[in-house]
Every structure is written in structure tokens, then in C-alpha cells.
Amino acid sequence: MKTSIFTMLILAFVSTSASSNPGKHNYEKLCLSCHLTSKTKDTKAIAPPIFAVKTHVKTAYPDREDFIQTIVDWVEDPDADASLMPGAIRKFGLMPKLPYAPSEVRKVAEFIYDTDFNSPNWYKKHYKAKHPTVQ
Ligand code: HEC
After folding, report:
1. In whole numbers, what is the pLDDT of the chain averaged over residues?
2. Which of 26, 27, 35, 114, when mutated, tests ligand 1's pocket best, judged by the most ligand atoms within 8 Å of its CB?
């Protein structure tokens, strides 16, 4: 009896930790409707894909904590003057202010920082052409 409860607990723990990353879950719930994980050049996008956002923010704020804080501050109050992607604002319009809890956005920012979204090669070329001084 003891053993089976123990086994159940272990199984419950293993399955939740494998399937639910709270940052990924929040990203899918709060951001994915606009920021896709990937896109081909001709997809009709309404916002830059998340790897493009990550590249811009991480280039300006390589430190993990600075990166996370920048994203949390941005989502709390998107401000064109503080934008790292003025080209995206011209193309898509300023991101709307959304009533998300900063603690939930923080989990998204951690997930974005820690995830390799495998930016496609065409984007790397596009980014280099637009930002020749950046590696
Ligand atoms: C309703 C659509 C929409 C949703 C939902 C949305 N965004 Fe955005 N976001 C945009 C658009 C459009 C832009 C590009 C224009 C801009 O930068 O304001 C953008 C830009 C950004 C930028 C770049 C800011 C800059 O420097 O210009 C960050 C960072 C960002 N979004 C994070 C997030 C995160 C994190 C979430 C989820 C918590 C999210 N967004 C949800 C539409 C959205």
C-alpha cells in the first residue's frame, strides 16, 4: 500500500514537470495569438515572431535578469519611445497594452530567454542586413 501511493506521487510529479512549463503555458495563452514561434516570409503576420523579439531584446539586454525585466516592463506599458523594434511598430502598429499580471509575464520572459526558437536562416540574413554592426 505504502509503495503504491509513493509510486503514484512520483508518477504525478514526473508527468506534471514534464508536461507543464508555466512559462511556455503562459506564452501560449498570452502571447502566441500575436507572436508566432516561427514564420515563413509570406505568412500574414500581425506581430513579429517571438524569436525576432528575443533577438532584439537580448542584443540590447544580454543579461538574463535585465532581459526579463525589460519584457515585463514593456508588456505592462508598451511605450514607443522605449521600443527596441521601431521597424515593427511601423509595420504592425504599437503593441496594445494588455491587462496581464507582471508575475505571469515574468514566467513568459524566463521561458523566452531560456528557449532556443531556432531562428530560420532567412531571418538571420534579414537581421544582419538591417543591423550590420551586430554579430
Ligand atoms: C494583440 C497582439 C499582441 C499580443 C497578445 C502580444 N503582443 Fe507583443 N507585440 C505586438 C506587436 C504588434 C508588436 C510590434 C510593435 C511593437 O514593438 O510595439 C509587439 C512587440 C513586442 C515586443 C518588442 C517591443 C519593442 O521593443 O518594440 C515585446 C518584448 C513583446 N511584444 C512581448 C510580448 C509578450 C511577452 C507577450 C505576451 C505576454 C506579447 N508581447 C503579447 C503585439 C502583441
Report:
1. 85
2. 35
DSSP assignment of 93-131 equals -PPPP----HHHHHHHHHHHHH------HHHHHHHHHH-
Q: How far apart are CA 113 and CA 4, in angstroms?
A: 39
pLDDT at 98 over 80: yes
Cα of 134 from ligand 1 centre, angstroms: 22
Q: How far is the CA of 21 from the centre of ligand 1 (A)?
A: 21
Q: Which amino acid is at 75?
A: V
> d(Cα 5, Cα 3) in Å, to the nearest integer?
6
Domain boundaries, the chain: 22-130
Q: What share of the chain is helix, strand, coil (3-state, %, to 5)?
A: 60, 0, 40
Q: How far is the centre of ligand 1, averaged over its atoms, from the C-alpha of 73 (Å)?
A: 12
Please state the rounded mean pLDDT for residues 117-135.
75
22-130: which CATH architecture?
Answer: Orthogonal Bundle (1.10)
Q: What residues contact 121, with CB distance under 8 A and at least 6 apart? A: none
